[in-house]
Specification:
It contains 4 helices and 25 strands. Helix content is 8%, strand content 34%. The strands form 5 sheets. Strands 1, 4, 5, 7, 8 and 10 form a 6-stranded antiparallel sheet that branches. It has a 5-stranded antiparallel sheet with strand order 2-3-11-6-9, with no helix packed on it. A hairpin with a 2-residue loop joins strand 17 (310-315) and strand 18. The radius of gyration is 28 Å and the shape is elongated.
Amino acid sequence: MNSLIFSLALLAPAQPKPDPNDIGVLPVSTDGKALNLDFETGDLKDWTAEGEAFKGQPIKGDTVFARRNDNRSRHQGQFWIGGYEKFGDKPTGTLTSAPFKVTHPWASFLVGGGSHTLDTCVEIVSGKDVIFRATGTDEEDMRRVSVDLTKFKDKVIFVRVVDKDAGGWGHINFDDFRFHEKKPSFPERPKAELPGIADAYKHAGLKPLDAAQAMTVPDGFSVTLFAGEPDVHQPVAFCIDHRGRLWVVEAYVYPRRNPAKGPMLPEKDKALGDKILIFEDTDGDGKFDKRTVFMEGLNLVSGIEVGFGGVWIGAAPYFLFVPHDEKTDKPAGEPKILLDGWGYQDTHETLNSFIWGRTAGCTGATACLRTAASVSRARRTISGHPSTRASGGTILRSTSSRCSRGARRTRGVWTTTRPATSSSKPV
C-alpha cells in the first residue's frame, strides 16, 4: 500500500513554487504596445466606461488615508481606480478594458472596496464567460489576488470592473493587472467580516402609508402621510414657509463633500448634487399634490430655512442666501455666501437645525472639531465676521462660539438678526 502511494506521488505533476520576486508585465495590444492596465497614463486610455461610477477616474495618490486613517489605498505607482473617491457609493457603472491575448500562465491585480459578490467586483472575461471574479473585503485597502490562466493560454480575454451597488460599500477599487511566468506570491487577503444578525425592528420595511398608520401617538393626535418615497428621497432637513408649504433638502452628496470649489457642483455634475424640493397641498386634503424642484446641484446641504425674500442654506463650509422668486418658485439670483468656515471633515457635526427666533433672526446649531486648526478657523469665521450684509438688508451676526482647544467636541450657536427697517414677517 505504501509503495502504491509512493508511486502515485511520483506520477503527480510538480506544483510551481510561488516566485516572490516576479513583479510581472503588463499585457500588450495587437500592435505590441503595453496596455494601460495600471492607469499610469493618468487617464482611462485602453478602457471603456459605462454609467457614472468611474467618472473622473483614475485617482492620483492615496486619497483614502486623508479621509480615514484606518484604511489606505495601497495602490501601485501614482494612479488607481477608487470607486468611492469622487462621488461616493451612489453612482453605478462598468469599466471594461481593451481585449488582449493571454501570454503568460498567471496574472494578478489589486482589488479593494465592497464585497458584494456580483455587484462590486473585478471580472476576467473570455468570450461571454466570466472565468474569474474577485471582490473587495469591505475595506478600501487594495490587496493583490492571483489568477491561474494556464487553461486560457493564447486566448483573448478582457478585464471588467463592475459597480452595480449604490448602498453601503457600493464601490470597487482596482489597479495594476499584470501577467506572471509563475504563480506570484502575495500575503493572504483578510476575509470580509460576515454581517452580524440584523436588529429586529417591528415595522421594518413598511411602505410610507403603512408606516404612518403604524405609528403610536398620544390621545387626540393622528398621523397622515403627506409625502413619501418615491416622491422624496434621502431627506436631511426641512422647513415650512408662510404658505404652509414643505421645503425639503434631499442629500445626495453626503457623507463626503464634493471637492468642487464653491457651494454648487459644476454644471455637468448638477444631477449628482443635493436638491431642494417644495411640496404643496393645493386642495387641503392633507396630502401634497404639487412638487417643485427649487434648485439642484448643491454641495453637502445640512440646514434650510425660508423667509425674508429667500432661502437660507447651510452647506459647509458655507452659510448661503438664495433669493426666491415667488412667482416661479425658482432662484431669483445666484447663491450668496454670507459666512464661511464651518468644518465639513465630520459631516455629522456641521451647521444645522435652522429656526426663526422671536426677534426674527435665524438661529442654528453648529459644532467645532477637536483639532486646533479646525477650532481656530471656526473662531475666525464666527467672531471675525460680525456683520455681513445679505440681500434685502438682512444682517448676519454671530452670537456665540464656545469652541475650546481642550474639549473633544464643543457646540456653538449662531444667529442672524435683521435691522429694524426689515419686515416683521419672515416672508
